[in-house]
Design goal:
Blueprint (H helix, E strand, L loop, with lengths): L4 H20 L2 E6 L3 H12 L4 E7 L2 H11 L3 E4 L2 E2 L2 E2 H9 L6 E6 L4 H10 L3 E4 L7 H9 L7 H12 L14 H11 L4 H8 L3 H15 L4 H10 L4
Parallel strand pairs: 1-2, 1-3, 3-6, 6-7
Antiparallel strand pairs: 4-5
Amino acid sequence: MCESTHGCHFFNNRISLLYRMSKQLPQSVLIVEDRPDIARRLQTVVESTSGITLAGMASTLSQGIEAFYHLKPRLVLVDIGLPDGSGVDLIKAVASAEWEVDALVISIFGDESRVIEAIQAGAKGYVLKGQEMDKVGEDIMSVLEGGSPISPSIARHLLAVLKEANVPSMPKESVLTQRETEILKAVSRGYKRREIADQLGISAGTVGNHITNIYRKLEVSSNMEAVAHASRLGVL
């Protein structure tokens, strides 16, 4: 307990300063990718993106899990198809970690079963390898800011699959507003928060507030889950 009012103010101000400084420090990224050429490209992207730093690299599931617990990164960039297992097992480890950390999938696999499995395991984003790799730095920052980047082709495929499901309609008290639905549709097409904000003529913060409301109404914790759930309910 503080011995004086002045001491309390000093202590609280110091804690506030340390918190702000922690938010400004580069966020560490662990890359788990078995192909050396792609791993090098991802390394270059991470090292050239302001606000993040490379924590380490691994080429197998076992190496990735060991590095994950040893390095305690802020984000794990993980491939699904690894030589000794599925990257989904690492995603599950990320989801149950005791520190703040997210998983972003980057893979050549865009089929229904792998995408849904990754989402259910706790992945915050799913992007395909290829030309989109040049934007991986933006995708990482999007996840760190609370977004869930999805490759447009993945989003379209996911929507098409989920629309075929026979599910009950959404309860009236959970129906999204017109603006929320508009934003979620943009998310489902792969647009990021800043892009949605520009399209709608509102701030990125306002988009974030709408997304928070969407999460609450749909009882989800990521854009990917929101798109999947809303699609099953017939909202999209």
